[in-house]
Write a structure and sequence with these properties.
- This protein is α/β, with parallel strands linked by helices.
- The protein folds into five domains: about 130 residues, Rossmann fold (3-Layer(aba) Sandwich); about 90 residues, Alpha-Beta Plaits; about 150 residues, Rossmann fold, CATH 3.40.50; about 90 residues, Alpha-Beta Plaits (2-Layer Sandwich); about 45 residues, no CATH class.
- About 35% of the residues lie in helices and about 20% in strands.
- The strands form seven sheets. A four-stranded parallel β-sheet has the order 2-1-3-4, with helices on both faces. The chain has a four-stranded parallel β-sheet with strand order 12-11-13-14, with helices on both faces.
- It is elongated and about 100 Å long.
Length: about 525
Amino acid sequence: MSKCGVILCECNGSLERRISLQELSRFIHSTAPDINIVLGNNLCNGGELKSLINKSDVHPSVIGACSKIQSRANLLQDLSGDDVNNPCFTKIVDVLSEINSSYTDNEVSDRIKLLLASQISKESYCNDLLQDNIKIHFPISQTEITRRNLLASLIPQYEVIPAILHDDCPGISCQLCADICPTGAIISSNDTVIIDKSSCTGCGACVNACPRGAISYPGYSTMDLQREIGALLSNQVELPYRVIAIACQSSVDSEAAAINNCPSSLFTMKVPSLFVVSPLLLLNAFNMGVDGIALIHNQGRCASKMSLESLSNTITFVQRLLDRWGIDKNRLKIIDKNSSEMSSELSQFCDNILTAGHTRFKAAPGSMTFEGMYNLAAIIKEMDTKLKIADEGVLSGEDVPFGVAIVDSTRCSGCTVCAQNCPTGAISAQTSPDSTMFKLIFQHARCIACGLCANVCPEKCINVNRTIDFSRLSDDEESIFVNEYVSCRNCNKPYVVKSMVNALKRKLEESGIVNAEWTEYCPSCRLAIQQKR
């Protein structure tokens, strides 16, 4: 297997005109000591890139060159053998655009370092690739068909898409991922759910919808994106401000010129679509010290056609939390404009942040990493603690990704169907050590307000309110239903909760069956009595 490495193109001396290669190499080794650095030149011409890779025996996890190198990397795609570390998953950093920018030499140096480090931080994701993560397609020419692009169209290309981890997936009893998939690519098959590769656009909506972490999306999981943001916030460079612009790949490519003309404090993160942006990701970015976040949305350009409404709840919730912490909510902004307005909007956004100064989190950046839906509660509690905010207050509304389950105890039978179907374990069933009492236990920090418990409840006695109660954001357990066990009239052993017996008698009476004494016997004694008769 080839060694992982970084390939830097000298671009005919242009790179060293603005940054010392020796200094850049030292920085890369300080962030990734085991990675190899290979220098080349004119890699966008002919077979230079392929020749360099073969000669150096290095898999380029990151290439720093000009934008033309992408097409060269695509032609090297090969999934033969056991080596999944191959050029089709290589990240390209357009260092030539940075070199030719109007930034100062120090700004260019700092930006190139951070941009390379941010992609190197995601280098290990290829090791987690499953066969289900790989989609094969043939490129379609958008121009007149020529002999050259006809041959290129015959070469299969690979892309990474989400894949379901079936050992962790509860199957068709959940289907939260299928409900949110914009293309209907997640379907049921043999009591489980699968992703139809032909329909999947790789938007990543399913990843954040799954509360069990049962969907793999190497390179674009919350953890991977947090690593990328963390690298952009490195304190090894002198840039005082860091503003992140997150945009889907198609929007970035179409509006690259507008984005490149923005202040040096702005760094762009490319994602498959803004569906991968979660409250957890945004909050962790602010917790680590990001000064501001702009989400570039362009529904017309987005391959998944994500609507603005799909993003608004996430933004509104995080902005309400920023208000709680005394931070200007405008540090998080959606920019939904065409390319002619993009540069001015982003520049104004950055200027406003520079005028306002750093956030209160900048002085004490977070050191913890959070992953998983219900750990959203953990990061909120840490940010509250960091700013000495009292754990009190309530936020309610459709934008809130937390829920409070309320059980009508007069109707609950204690059947535990709600606990069996809760995808996060927010509701669980417990029996007292002496087997005399039954409880339904609720953990607010784990509830994502999916409503599955209410949907499956046969007695329709559960309501879920979209609410976050800051005083209950912990793993503390609270009882939402308590009932005693009934002992068998024959053997005197506890066998069922009283509410279940009462519910059964009620249903029998509604059916015209008045004498239902047999419900007061355990199954074993009931069978024995019937056999004697």
